[in-house]
Design goal:
This protein is α+β, with helices and mostly antiparallel strands. The protein contains 5 helices and 8 strands, in the order H-H-E-E-E-E-H-E-E-E-E-H-H.
């Protein structure tokens, strides 16, 4: 998914969540900046992440991020890679050790813009996070990377409490529950 394809995906992306509708416009504006795929681009830059669920949509892989001290989905910086899908997949594989991820919904699963605090003389900035949803079997062993304090399968019902009811995480939990219901039909 190159820059033009991401722009098209954003233009066709629809959400029932009002904050995502506003985010979409902000993403489209950011894409006009040549260096938006680089972590040094301020006031914010593109990131890609993966929401990884088990085959029954009842558990999700979360990591306890070392720097942010929060439970989050795997993801990271594009570092110049204009295929944000490839970024999300690469980060998921690097941060979880999983290499057998199956995309279960074509295109964008979720959009979020969130602040990242100042760290080591790098100022507070925004992450424009494009999220994709994958599934895998829980039989595959998770391998925690050096960037994380912990990595685990978390029951979907426990995610919101564990993450402090973070709005963007709660939104993905709700979307996952909707997908689970639609797959039962």
């Amino acid at each position: 998914m190159n820059r033009r394809q991401l722009q098209q995906a954003l233009l066709s992306y629809s959400s029932t969540f009002k904050e995502e509708k506003a985010f979409r416009e902000d993403f489209l504006q950011l894409l006009l900046a040549e260096r938006c795929y680089y972590r040094d681009y301020l006031p914010g830059h593109l990131t890609g992440s993966s929401w990884i669920v088990d085959e029954t949509f009842t558990q999700v892989v979360l990591l306890h991020h070392g720097k942010l001290n929060k439970w989050l989905q795997p993801g990271g910086h594009a570092d110049g890679d204009e295929s944000i899908f490839a970024v999300a997949l690469r980060e998921a594989e690097e941060e979880t050790g999983l290499s057998n991820l199956k995309l279960i919904q074509q295109g964008i699963f979720d959009l979020d813009i969130h602040p990242i605090p100042e760290h080591k003389n790098f100022p507070e900035h925004l992450h424009y996070d494009v999220r994709f949803i994958f599934s895998t079997s829980k039989n595959h062993e998770l391998q925690c990377s050096d960037e994380s304090r912990d990595l685990a399968w978390i029951p979907l019902d426990d995610v919101e409490v564990l993450t402090g009811h973070a709005t963007s995480i709660s939104r993905m939990v709700e979307k996952t529950n909707r997908l689970a219901r639609s797959n039962q039909r």
